[in-house]
């Protein structure tokens, strides 16, 4: 008879053996054990019990106790215990609330609704969307007009990325509670997400320039398909021609874990547990995890099963019919190793103001960064000169075309920063040796420029030891830049512009250091240097923008319209790597265009020293420092907005 989920396998909590002790004076009923109250045998006694003042009181007290315990655990954020108590409460209350009980004698249904509704919230807090949905449905069975339960049911649909169902339910709730602002706002939010998921239109720039919590974006799947490749298992391909800058896909990370920046090793364990947890939250997510490559020891050429794209399209509750088990810890660990990407470069408006990044919370204690796992992006193969750029904002990863491409092109992203010299070492972790066009070129050229690379290392060593100052630094860098340019001219093979820029890129630090002495250069020399730098950055398609729109940016408009973003960190001025203007920043093409056409020459937007830009320090800035920063940031944000949206 009991159709409640309290007794289903979702809620493993054992029915509690109540502490009810029947007194001697009630020998006749002593055979009723309250823990058996749901059994057929006991149910026949229920009307008698409820009509008996003593038992009625005992039952009420017990129910209240269970419910209050649930609340207590809820308030302490002990979600699973709260779920267990609310379920016990429902299980215990149900037989006393059945319609056949004489009117007036039954336990009020409120306790059932409220327990099921609170349990729904405890499940939502754990991102257990499908179970939360069942729980909300149970609450609504007891009272179909319970506004909170309708709201929570909608939140479960939102978690399952079914935004349309979410706002339709919310509109129902709004009819019952027309002035409820939270519901109104959530309707708007879900409608916006639905629109994004269908059209693929996101106003990133505008959202980023608003202080406040990280915006939430919906997933979106553009003209893509998964196919086998000849060299790297499965990959993602275009199903139509696209222009540069087009958003091809947006995907919210499935799970995140803290990581050391350079040594991820054991950090997978945290991520592994998160993924297993996620597998419990919805069948679709379970299937998405199922299709991920299992282990980094696989032969990369072997193609795995090809999932249907429907599995990734939001609002499409299609899911393979096959029943699959939650994968084992070892299997999930292997999937985490092969498919996780850094989320260090995640940007959030936190960089512009108050508010706490969800990912900053993952990055607890002394950890330096965050790694995450995304569903569809796990099928992108790597290139060190990729044709797509990625941008992470909060949980969402945006993938955009970095160049115009015809139908059928295999899309690639870079798993590591394209700026790294030792990409090979970092890529080892994915267990393949990169043979992209840039790596093949680098291997061919390296012996020819080895002497220059050795000199570069030596110079960098000296600069790091701060064994050089002022003019001496400028002269050393100028000399090396001139030698690199000379070498490029004299190389014994014909190089394309892009290939020349790959060579320059290997020395970009020196070019940047030279740029610091802009006032010592003629205009012609400065323009040439910037042109080379821009070309170098474009050639490797520096991905994202994560590092490039950080707090405290200074915008420097240089003579030929190229832009440099600089920022201050606790360790001093960091402007060498902040560059906005390359094709790599295609994500920001609109933003970039506006910058380019702005009349600004120079704007100082530096932040106070104590506000470091690293992920680690961002989470920690409190008190006066935070206030000072907020003022500064608000000012800077306005300035940015003026430039961007005038
Ligand atoms: C995130 S997965 C990419 C999707 C993968 N190809 C699949 O079939 O599931 C990463 C794995 O793909 C393979 N891979 C990615 N890029 C590659 C490349 N440029 N060359 C060779 N193998 C690559 C490697 O086996 C790597 O561990």
From TrEMBL:
Residues 222-416 form the SET domain. TPR repeats lie at residues 147-180. Keywords: TPR repeat. It holds the Pfam family SET. CDD domains: SET_SMYD. PANTHER family: TPR DOMAIN PROTEIN (AFU_ORTHOLOGUE AFUA_5G12710). This is SET domain-containing protein.
């Amino acid at each position: 008879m009991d159709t409640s989920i309290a007794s289903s396998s979702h809620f493993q909590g054992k029915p509690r053996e109540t502490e009810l002790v029947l007194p001697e004076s009630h020998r006749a009923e002593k055979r009723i054990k309250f823990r058996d109250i749901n059994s057929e045998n006991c149910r026949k006694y229920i009307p008698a019990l409820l009509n008996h003042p003593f038992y009625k009181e005992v039952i009420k007290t017990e129910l209240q106790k269970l419910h209050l315990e649930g609340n207590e655990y809820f308030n302490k954020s002990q979600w699973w215990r709260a779920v267990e108590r609310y379920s016990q409460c429902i299980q215990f209350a149900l037989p006393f609330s059945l319609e056949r009980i004489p009117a007036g004698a039954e336990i009020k249904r409120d306790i059932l609704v409220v327990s099921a509704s609170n349990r729904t919230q405890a499940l939502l807090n754990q991102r257990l969307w499908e179970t939360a949905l069942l729980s909300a449905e149970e609450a609504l069975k007891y009272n179909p007009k319970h506004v909170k339960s309708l709201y929570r049911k909608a939140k479960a649909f939102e978690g399952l990325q079914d935004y349309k169902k979410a706002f339709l339910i919310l509109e129902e709730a709004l009819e019952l509670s027309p002035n409820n602002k939270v519901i109104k706002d959530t309707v708007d939010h879900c409608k916006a997400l639905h629109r994004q998921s269908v059209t693929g239109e996101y106003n990133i720039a505008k959202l980023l320039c608003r202080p406040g919590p990280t915006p939430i974006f919906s997933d979106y799947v553009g003209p893509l398909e998964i196919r086998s490749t000849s060299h790297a298992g499965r990959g993602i391909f275009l199903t139509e021609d696209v222009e540069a800058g087009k958003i091809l896909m947006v995907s919210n990370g499935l799970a995140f874990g803290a990581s050391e920046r350079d040594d991820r090793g054991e950090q997978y364990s945290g991520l592994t547990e998160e993924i297993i947890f996620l597998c419990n939250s919805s069948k679709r997510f379970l299937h998405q995890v199922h299709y991920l490559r299992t282990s980094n020891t696989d032969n990369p050429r072997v193609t795995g099963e090809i999932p249907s794209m429907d599995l990734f399209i939001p609002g499409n509750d299609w899911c393979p019919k096959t029943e699959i088990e939650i994968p084992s810890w070892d299997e999930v660990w292997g999937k985490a190793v092969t498919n996780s990407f850094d989320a260090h470069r995640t940007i959030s408006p936190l960089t512009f103001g108050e508010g706490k990044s969800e990912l900053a919370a993952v990055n607890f204690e002394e950890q330096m960064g965050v790694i995450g796992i995304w569903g569809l992006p796990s099928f992108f193969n790597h290139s060190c000169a990729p044709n797509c750029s990625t941008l992470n904002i909060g949980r969402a990863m945006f993938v955009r075309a970095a160049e115009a491409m015809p139908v059928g092109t295999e899309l690639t992203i870079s798993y590591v920063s394209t700026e790294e010299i030792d990409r090979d070492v970092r890529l080892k972790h994915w267990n393949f040796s990169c043979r992209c066009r840039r790596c093949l070129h680098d291997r061919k050229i390296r012996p020819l420029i080895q002497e220059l690379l050795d000199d570069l290392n030596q110079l960098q060593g000296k600069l790091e030891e701060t064994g050089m100052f002022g003019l001496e630094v400028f002269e050393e860098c100028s000399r090396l830049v001139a030698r690199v340019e000379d070498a490029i001219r004299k190389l014994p093979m014909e190089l394309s512009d892009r290939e020349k820029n790959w060579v320059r890129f290997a020395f970009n630090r020196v070019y940047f250091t030279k740029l610091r002495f802009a006032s010592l250069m003629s205009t012609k020399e400065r323009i040439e240097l910037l042109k080379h730098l821009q070309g170098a950055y474009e050639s490797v398609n520096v991905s994202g923008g994560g590092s490039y729109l950080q707090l405290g940016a200074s915008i420097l408009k240089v003579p030929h319209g190229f832009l440099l973003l600089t920022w201050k960190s606790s360790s001093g001025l960091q402007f060498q790597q902040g560059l906005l203007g390359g094709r790599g920043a295609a994500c920001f093409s609109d933003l970039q265009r506006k910058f380019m056409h702005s009349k600004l020459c120079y704007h100082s937007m530096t932040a106070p020293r104590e506000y470091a830009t690293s992920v680690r320090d961002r989470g920690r800035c409190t008190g006066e420092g935070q206030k000072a920063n907020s003022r500064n940031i608000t000012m800077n944000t306005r300035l940015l907005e003026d430039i961007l949206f005038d």
